Amino acid sequence: MRPIPVSQGQLDSVDKNHLVLTGGRGEALRITPLADDVVRVQFMPDGAPRSTRTWTVVNRDGSMPREGRNRDAPCAFAPAPFTWIDNALFSARLRVQVNPETFALSWSVAGKQIFRDLPDRAYTYDCAGQSVWHYLEMNPNERYYGFGERTGRLEKSGRRLRLKMVDALGYDAETSDPLYKHIPFHIILNTQYNVAFGIFHDNAHSGEYDNGAEIDAFWGSYRSVRFDGGDLDYYVIYGPTMAEVLDKYTRLTGRPAEMPGWALGYLGSAMKYTEAEDADAQLRRFLIDCEKHEIPVSGFHLSSGYTTDALGRRRTFCWNTDKIPDPAGLAAEFNKRGVRLAANVKPYILESHPKFASLRRSGALIKELESERPQIAMAWPGGRNEKAPCAYIDFTSEAGYNWWVEQATETLLKFGISALWNDNNEFQLPDDAARCAGFGETLALGEIRPVQTLLMAHASYTATAQHDPSQPPLVLTRAGSAGIQRYAQTWTGDNRTSWHTLKFNIPMGLGLSLSGVPNWGHDVGGFDGPPPSPELLVRWAQAGALTPRFTIHSWNTDGSVTSPWMYLDVLPLVRDAIRLRMRFMPYLKQRMLAASVRGEPINAPTVFYHSDDPNTYDQSFEFMVGPDVLVAPVYEAGADHRTVYLPAGRRWVDWHTGDSYVGGRTTTVPAPLERLPLFVAEGGILLTSV
């Protein structure tokens, strides 16, 4: 790669909607104010857009056609008036100083500079390829949040974060990168002025954020973002609060989907149930055990073992009737007991799948670059670390999209299944040049890989909504992209069973909250690895009890099943965690409504509500449920006390004891195994338990 910066630029044109600059080699920069506090910037190395469609920025009414929409069509924000004086663009709230020669921009509010591009290297691109870079100055008063699903602490200064979707089985929740999601959006908090703004890059290519990990003395302190192709088509969203940033971002990319009420309850799951030869009996036994042990449950994840053939290979939309002789009867039994089923589905079709040949003929599969043959990839067929040849459904083809909706309806929803669980959907094909139909305009997979994941969710959502329009659909998805919040709930993938994971899953979820994805959860107890100890199971159940998705799910290496009754000695404590969730259900429903209306997180970091308190900037291991409830999970073995910083400006009441604490101080409270440290802001809407 030979990245070069823009030089010898000049003002090209100014009209009522846009400001356009051109560079010495034909590059173009277009600035479009969309509101007083939302501005779109396009850096086009070729002088014109490399991509004309988007699947992330929605229409003015919040809709998104499955074929995408023209990037320049009206969005949720109408073009805003601006003035152009002395190389500066003025909207009612923002001032953008422009260097016409280098395209570098400097952004100010009320005369205060909030951020700016790196002056002499703002926009660079690869003359021999398609990569593009955006460089910005690092300000010591900036804090960085979001970027989608990320490991490590909440605040991301100094991190290099890859934009790539992978199947990250057993990841390290502190250090692994990348994971399952491609969400090129982040929030910057300028702590000098206590104002927040967001930057969203509308680009589906793989890439990388660098928040100061790279150091080059020649340029000073900087951060950057790179994409392997496309343009730098980004939106600057001024708050000034984090809540206002997320409100505007989710107006731009779509409001989070509502969920059916049952999805807020405890949702059971485990790989082993459907892997067993007597899967039907195992699944029915789960219902009996819930009743026996007085476990309130409202849903169950039907893992993919229900689709296996005689060799254990997964066949999406096929039932193994040796394991489950009467699928409709099984679903009816669950529904009768008030437990809804979510069936696991995968976007790849193994060559051994009975529909492989017909899908190939219909054009429903992603194709090789220079032939009509499907692009063959390796995918997980069933056993741990196994691989088998497959092809992927092309959700940008009419044949593929329609087949998915039809099969989901005919083989699952009509059998009494209530929700679709999109899994293994990172689209890890070996060739980025593989051809996607693009609804009539051929596109390379590398241009739209996250879009395939998004459209899979769109198809599952469409099928579920059409089948039962009486309630909001529930779709679950492991992978995701910007805009995924419109269709699906997500979880943080195949986490590793450990205290370390319990701890670092907390900021991972909060990062999703600050990325416009409020509806998430973790596999409680850990998915991959040994079974949790009794103490770890209790603490994980407590930590998960007030998260949006509350599911115990496992694939334990010793063949055991993680369940509320796994250890009878601590069963009452796990049951208490589930009952705590039931007690908070009205409040969780309120928070879910706020998420769907304003994009407000259901769980948020303390800095979201207390950005005027410097001690909250990187408070990573506690979380808020709305503005009035603070949860401090215990994440260390043997701990019987919990030390927690309570944000300034309010008094906080211990939910369990009624003791009152002044905010702005670090407090240590008793945390015996039966207790989740929990605080309510004095004057808030919730009463304590005492």
Textual characterization of the structure:
With 690 residues, the protein is of the alpha+beta class. Among the domains are: 3-137 and 195-239, glycosyl hydrolase (family 31) (Immunoglobulin-like, Sandwich); 598-681, Golgi alpha-mannosidase II (Immunoglobulin-like). The strands form eleven sheets. It has an eight-stranded antiparallel beta sheet with strand order 2-3-4-5-22-19-18-15. Strands 34-32-29-25-24-23-37-35 form an eight-stranded parallel beta sheet. A hairpin with a 5-residue loop joins strand 3 and strand 4 (28-35). It is globular and about 75 Å long. The model has no long low-confidence stretch (mean pLDDT 96).
Q: What is the number of helices? A: 12
The mean pLDDT is: 96
Largest sheet: 8 strands, antiparallel
- What's the β-strand tally? 46
Q: Separation of termini?
A: 64 Å
Topology:
Blueprint: E1 3-5, E2 10-14, E3 19-22, E4 28-35, E5 38-44, E6 53-54, E7 69-70, E8 83-85, E9 88-90, E10 94-98, E11 105-109, E12 112-116, E13 123-126, E14 132-137, E15 142-146, E16 160-163, E17 181-182, E18 185-190, E19 195-201, E20 207-210, E21 222-227, E22 232-238, H1 242-253, E23 266-269, H2 271-275, H3 279-292, E24 299-302, H4 327-336, E25 340-345, E26 348-350, H5 356-362, E27 377-379, E28 388-392, H6 398-411, E29 419-422, E30 435-436, E31 443-444, H7 445-467, E32 475-477, E33 480-481, E34 489-490, H8 499-513, E35 521-524, E36 528-529, H9 534-544, E37 549-552, E38 555-556, H10 571-583, H11 585-598, E39 603-604, H12 606-609, E40 623-625, E41 629-631, E42 641-646, E43 651-654, E44 660-662, E45 665-670, E46 678-681
